[in-house]
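Reviewers of the previous submission asked for a worked example of the structure-prediction workflow described in the proposal, so we include one complete record here. The input consisted solely of the amino acid sequence. No template or homolog information was supplied to the procedure at any stage.
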Amino acid sequence: MWVDMAALDGRIGAEKPLKSWKEIASFFGRDERTVKRWEAGRGLPVHRVPGRTRASVYAYPSELEARPEPCRGTCGARLHDLLLGP
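From that input alone, the workflow returned the following structure tokens.
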């Protein structure tokens, strides 16, 4: 069954979603386990496709970029400070 993920959120034609944990992890330059942890503990804006048995995920780059943490790319000390405090 094909699901139009853009239509689910009312973003028809707006932007192309990242369609898997692997794509989301690649966006941040991290591994899948890390972004799954960020989603569970830090509220990373990841959506799930309804009606799927394995809970397929997708995320929009603009929503991921709008998050103050975790940051994209190499942010080392800044990410450490945000997660653990100065």
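The radius of gyration is 14 Å. We consider this example representative of the routine output the project will generate in years two and three.
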